[in-house]
Structures are given as C-alpha cells and as structure tokens.
Structure to design on (160 residues):
C-alpha cells in the first residue's frame, strides 16, 4: 500500500468509528482510553475492511498485537490533540479520528499528558450497534485486543 493508496474509503470499508472511556489500567488510577475500529459496513464487506486496515497498519511499520509508546509513522509523531471536549488523533495516515469526549475524560487525559489508544483490525461483528456497553465489551474481547495496534499517545492542547 503506497502513500497514494492509504485512505480507507468509507463507502468501500465503512467509516472509522471511535469511542473514549475512563478505565483503570494495571498500574492503578483512572486513565483515558480511546479505541477505533472499522464497522465493515461498506460495499466490500467486513473481510475486505479488515484486510485493508491490516495493510495500512503494516504500511505504518506496525502489526497487530503490538504496543507502541510515543509512536511515529513515516517520521511524524502520532498525537492526541485535545481541544475543549474534542479529541483528534493526528499522524495516522488514512485514518481520520475526531470525536467528542466527556469532561472527565478530558481532565484525566490532560492530567496524565497521555492516553491509551487502540486501533483494532477486527471489524464490528454484530450488526447495528445497540449500546455503548456492547462496544466496550467488543473492545475488551480477546479477538479484538489481539487484532489491535495499541499506542500510548502524548496529549497536546492547542494554545488559546
């Protein structure tokens, strides 16, 4: 996959979907988590979406099951930019991620100066999303985490 072919076209693969939550990692305390996946609801279906995302992750020099702290892709840092109650992940070629977050999530992300981000290549397998709890179960399931690239991202806040 070359630089001209890195965008995941939503009509073919589905639109990248992301969710943020507060969790308690093994080292204790509250931490801001963000995870993203392809629903696989595009014209080509879930298997094509998974294949395209795997190729994209490989083009970044990463692989499923890896954990990367302060990642760089093609020499550019991957960063979570927190502006008000909106987070945007910058530096993921072909994967646009911007979503609203809660006040609690934003405060914890700013306090730690970093977030845990996971991008799973596993497409959503259950049809229409019925609840946030269902998405959280999906993200915590072994097949999803095993198919994820996990990243510890620095948090940047734009100057006022």
């Amino acid at each position: 996959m070359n630089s001209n072919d890195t965008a995941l076209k939503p009509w073919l693969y589905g639109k990248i979907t992301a969710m943020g939550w507060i969790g308690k990692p093994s080292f204790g305390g509250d931490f801001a988590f963000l995870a993203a996946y392809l629903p696989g609801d595009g014209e080509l279906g879930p298997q094509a979406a998974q294949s395209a995302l795997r190729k994209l992750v490989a083009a970044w020099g990463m692989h499923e099951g890896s954990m990367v702290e302060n990642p760089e892709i093609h020499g550019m840092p991957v960063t979570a930019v927190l502006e008000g109650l909106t987070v945007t992940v910058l530096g993921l070629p072909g994967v646009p991620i911007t979503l609203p977050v809660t006040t609690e999530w934003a405060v914890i992300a700013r306090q730690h100066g970093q977030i845990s981000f996971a991008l799973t290549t596993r497409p959503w397998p259950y049809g229409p999303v019925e609840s946030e709890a269902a998405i959280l179960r999906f993200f915590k399931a072994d097949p999803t985490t095993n198919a994820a690239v996990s990243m510890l991202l620095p948090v940047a806040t734009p100057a006022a």
Remarks:
- The helical segments are 10-13, 45-59, 103-112, 132-140, 142-146.
- The radius of gyration is 15 Å.
- Residues 3-75+122-153 form one domain.
- The first strand starts at residue 17 and ends at 23.
